[in-house]
Amino acid sequence: MEFSGLEKLSLVDYDDNLTATLFMAGCPFRCPFCHNADLVLHPEKAEVIPFATIMDYLQKRQGVLDAVCITGGEPTLMPDLEEKIRAIRALGYKIKLDSNGFRPTVLRDLIGKGLLDYVAMDIKNSPEKYSLTAGVEVDISAIEESVSLLMNSGIAYEFRTTSVQEFHDYSDFVKIGKWIAGANRYFIQHYVDSEYCIQRHFHELSPQKAQECLKIVQEYVPSAQLRGY
User: Fold this and answer.
1) Cα–Cα dist 3/5, whole Å
2) CA 20, CA 95: separation in Å to the nearest integer?
3) What is the residue range of 94's domain?
4) Are strands 19-23 and 5-10 parallel, antiparallel or unpaired?
5) How far, in Å, CA of 194 to CA of 192, rounded?
6) CA 142 to CA 47: how far, in whole Å?
7) Which residues of 31-61 are buried (b: 16+ CB within 10 A; e: fewer)?
8) Is residue 160 a contact partner of residue 172, using CB atoms and an 8 Å limit?
């Protein structure tokens, strides 16, 4: 299975690392505010980038780039993900994986084999509103398993919630805070309406409300921060 996008240089996907970002088409979720509508809704029409082309680029950028971020869509759907990660790591790159956490067995396997340096996992909403926010029926036990796995894995990770006025309120952040209490890192992310979203015309949380939600979460995750505000 091939990737469908390559951002050759990102300064924001993995902290201070100079990063190349790979996009995989396909996702089991249909979050209405998702910014990658084409990759999610029409994976069969997505661009195909031969892995040999990606590896050629990464070989040429050895010593310049620090890391590769693998995102989507949902990259844990890729049957040969482990094989591709091993090839990239063999060039000396750190690997960051973005995931919605719906396949904890894949995460556990990759972490257990020492193939990931950082995982960023979405927390779509409080458990009670997860399916509403994801746009499909979600097995919340799988999400809970991934949360527990990361918090006890010993590797670097973050949880993150893209905050949308129509989906998130104060009580949701209380429940999220209690759920991930003690997590290493958590971000409330700024939502921006875009033509690339699955649905349009949702609204951001105001900076004031975002700060109030952050204070709620910080009771449980003191290091929590806003991102994009």
Assistant:
1) 6
2) 10
3) 5-227
4) antiparallel
5) 6
6) 30
7) bbbbbbbbbbeebeebeebebeebeeebeeb
8) no
pLDDT tens by residue, 8-45: 999 999 999 999 999 999 999 999 999 999 999 999 99
| pLDDT, tens digit, 9 for 90 and up, residues 64-82 | 999 999 999 999 999 999 9
Collect all residues with Cβ–Cβ distance below 8 Å to 76 and sequence separation of at least 6: 97, 99, 102, 103, 106, 107
The Cα–Cα gap between 83 and 79 comes to 9
If one counts the domains in the chain, the total is: 1
CA-nearest of 71, 64, 86, 77 to 9 is 64
193 CB neighbour count, 10 Å cutoff = 15
CATH code, domain with 185: 3.20.20.70
Rounded to the nearest 10°, the torsion over CA 170, 167, 76, 187 is: -40
- Entry pTM: 0.97
